[in-house]
Amino acid sequence: MGLKSWKLGDGVELHAGEYPQDAKIFMSDEEPGIEFPDLVPNTVRLLIVSKRLKNGMEEVNRGPVQYLPLSIYNHKKRLASTDYFVVNPLGTVDVLDTSASKIEYLDGKVVEITKYVLDPKKIAQAPDLFRIKEAPESYVVSERVLDAWRKITPKPTNITFFILDVPAT
């Protein structure tokens, strides 16, 4: 994708011709396994998921998202799977209670967030999958998405959740 790759990290919509029709990633030689997790770890913080997780999200999500097909090639550079997607939640959502959250700033820009506290009024209107305005590299999913994923059998793999603080109103 070249110079346009920043869009996937920031939640900016990709237009026709900006995403390769034959998009692919290769398994790392540093990770010798050949199993395919439902959530694929990567060094560029993209949300790469199996078709199973994508279908669960798509079923309940009410927010703007792009689902971009992705093929995975094995260590021998042979096609291993075409059942993966880069999920690009578009835009960011202002949901943090910035006074209750622990945010480190430098020259007015967010450097690190060590405690996320969601504002109950703001979160009420949030979509089921989104990026936080102050941390667009972070993805938030709703209970509705989690419930859809919990119905998947066998259980999805390689997923870790952090419950975010939402004070009572």
Q: How many whole angstroms does the radius of gyration measure?
A: 17 Å
* Portion in helices: 10-25%
Give the overall shape.
Answer: globular
* Uncertain ranges: none
- Describe the sheet with the most strands: 5 strands, mixed
Q: Report the end-to-end length measured between terminal Cα atoms.
A: 44 Å
- SSE order: HEEEHEEEEHEEH
What's the total count of β strands? 9
Mean pLDDT: 91
Organism: Corallococcus soli
Pfam family, one: Imm11
Domain Immunity MXAN-0049 protein: 29-161
Protein name: Immunity MXAN-0049 protein domain-containing protein
Please explain how this structure is put together.
Residues 29-161 form the Immunity MXAN-0049 protein domain. InterPro entries: Imm11 (IPR012433). It comes from Corallococcus soli. The protein has 4 helices and 9 strands, in the order H-E-E-E-H-E-E-E-E-H-E-E-H. It has 169 residues and is of the alpha+beta class. The chain has a domain at 2-89. The strands form 3 sheets. Strands 1-4-5-3-2 form a 5-stranded mixed β-sheet. The longest helix has 10 residues, at 51-60. The chain is globular, with a radius of gyration of 17 Å. The relative contact order is 0.19.
Q: How would you describe this structure in keywords?
A:
169 residues, alpha+beta, two-stranded antiparallel ribbon, 4 helices, 16% helix
Please specify the SSE layout and strand pairing:
Layout: H1 6-10, E1 24-26, E2 39-40, E3 47-50, H2 51-60, E4 65-73, E5 79-89, E6 102-106, E7 109-115, H3 120-123, E8 129-132, E9 135-141, H4 143-150
Parallel strand pairs: 1-4
Antiparallel strand pairs: 2-3, 3-5, 4-5, 6-7, 8-9
Helix pairs in contact: 2-4
